[in-house]
Each structure stands twice: as C-alpha cells, then as structure tokens.
Amino acid sequence: MRRACLSIAAMATLLIMTGCSGPPPLYVDGGYVRLNANPQAPSAAYFTIHGGGDPVVLRGVTTDEAVRLEIHESMTQGGMASMKPVDSVDIPAGKTVKFAPGGKHIMLWGVNAQTVADGKISFTFIFSNGDRILADAVVQKPDGSAANAAAGNAAAGDHMENMANMAH
Ligand SMILES: [Cu+2]
C-alpha cells in the first residue's frame, strides 16, 4: 500500500516536471516507531506528511495494532521538556509537515507484541477532505536498530528506490 502511494507520488512529480498542471498529491511516508526502553511506558511513531494541492487538517490517526494512541506535540519551556495532546494538525498545501523526536509524534500504548516481532505497524491518517491514507511504520528498538531485520532492510530499500525516482 505504501509502495503504491509512493509510486503515485513519483509519477505525479514526473507529470509536474513534464508540464502537466495537476495538483501534487497528499501523501504520508517515512514512518517509523521507536519502542520505549521501558515496556510499561508508551512508544512513539513518527511520519512525514506531504501536503497536496489544497490545505487540509489531519483529524486523527488510527491503528489496529496498539491499545490506544494520541497525537502529541513536544515543547521545551524554561528548560523543561513536556508534551501535550493535540486534536488536529494543519497541513498547508504543498508543504511538508514532519513528525520527529522533540516535536510532533504519535504516542502509542500497548503495541501488539506480534506486530513488534513482524517489524511493521500500519496506521490510517484521516484528513478533513475525507482522505484516509494508509501508511506503514518500521518498528525500531529503543537504540534505533530494526526490530525485525528483514522489515528494516525492506524499508531501507524503499527509501533508496525513492531517492532513485527523485533523481530522474
Ligand atoms: Cu507524547
């Protein structure tokens, strides 16, 4: 599913470069879950959302593979790091919104152990324009290495393929 979205994005990029004026697609990629070293504590998921032709709002994220999740925003105030849940995230047209450590993230409670072993978690992103976009996240151990070596390598391969597409 993720691969299909990426190739549509790559094709759209090519169309734009060849002079077609179709709007850029809204899509999600670069997903990974960083497991918490403390199994009782929540883990975090990170993604990159690429805005399409019109501004939209991310209204929610779901997964079948965790007990609960929340969209969070981390901040540092007076040297104190904290985070708070957010209900929605604005995705401006044509802009990239990155979920990354120290900023926006998806907090996950009770990640399915079998999913962790498989090394991949699927999420659905729900947008204000009605789009529901499925995106996979590679599961990483607390040290950043892949929880499942095969899944981790496949993701790295996707990334390389992506870079190659962009170079065309
Ligand atoms: Cu959080």
From TrEMBL:
This is Copper chaperone PCu(A)C. PANTHER family: BLR7088 PROTEIN (PTHR36302), COPPER CHAPERONE PCU(A)C (PTHR36302:SF1). The keyword Transport does not apply. The keyword Calcium does not apply. It comes from Sphingobium nicotianae. It holds the Pfam family PCuAC. Residues 1-21 form the signal peptide. Coiled coil: none annotated. Gene3D superfamilies: PCu(A)C copper chaperone. Keywords: Signal. It comes from the Bacteria.
